[in-house]
Amino acid sequence: MASIPSSRAPRTVTAATAKQRMLKQLVCSDAPEQALRYYGFQRIAGVDEVGRGALFGPVVAAAVILPECLDELADAGLKDSKQLTREERESLDQQIRRMALAICVAEVDAETIDRVNIYQATRMAMLQAVVGLAMTPDHLLIDAMRLDHPCRQTKLIYGDALSLSIAAASVIAKVHRDGLMRQLDELHPGYGLASHKGYGTPEHRRALAEIGPCALHRRSFAPVRAVDPDAALDQVVSAELLFEDVDMENAEWA
């Protein structure tokens, strides 16, 4: 007897869901660090950022130099901070700080992000974190970036899911920024910063539409610019300055 084909429609999976599933299958280990130690590098700094896609507040970067033996952190479940709960991140944050040889956290504020763009601001924060380390690294393991720094570097795609050093920097940066967002939620109530940490959730976008952006929002980001009354005024002023010496009535295209 012939089988009857199913009429059930195939389930669609979003790109974000597919990426999260893929990341969960990656193994975070000290393999990148051990490969570098084989070639003689000893002071290896993991570098990562948090808050690059947020609409509010600074982008935060951390640089972390860990000792050679990372079994303790691997056994504790260290991996990409986005794959951990708040409780797990905060516990690992304390554990990393106890055993790290050097740690530095750096912030680049929203005003600078708007002036230089988020990509360059992220690189600035990462560079500041590296330069601020109390111990000079001899190699940088960076999550998908390269920095203007003389130190030898390895750019590792999905590095926070593959390297324990980068994962440690990811945890340190996220715990720092999440704590900052909870503090700023008290200073700038109404946006729900304590819950979404400044990202563009529906709750945050509704608040932006209702009460408008505050001084710490990234006005160069489209969702903020769309509800920013100053942005429309800036466009008008820019046009007036551009054409102030032009006879608009007699212009050929008028």
Protein model, in words:
This protein has 254 residues and is an alpha/beta fold. It is globular, with a radius of gyration of 23 Å. Strands 3-2-1-4-5 form a 5-stranded mixed beta sheet, sandwiched between helices. β1 and β2 form a beta hairpin. The chain has a domain of 173 residues: Nucleotidyltransferase, domain 5 (2-Layer Sandwich).
CATH class of the domain at 23-195: Alpha Beta
Number of strands: 5
The helix/strand order is HHEEHHEHHEEHHHHH
- Spatial strand order of the main sheet: 3-2-1-4-5
Query: Any idea what the CATH architecture of the domain at 23-195 is?
Result: 2-Layer Sandwich
| Helicity, as a percent range | 40-55%
Report how far apart the termini are. Answer: 76 Å
* Overall body shape: globular
What structural class is derived from the secondary structure elements? alpha/beta
Give the number of helices: 11
Gyration radius, rounded = 23 Å
Low-confidence stretches: 235-254
**What's the main sheet like?**
5 strands, mixed
CATH level-four homologous superfamily name of the domain at 23-195: Ribonuclease H-like superfamily/Ribonuclease H
* CATH fold name of the domain at 23-195: Nucleotidyltransferase, domain 5
Mean pLDDT value: 89
Strand content: 5-15%
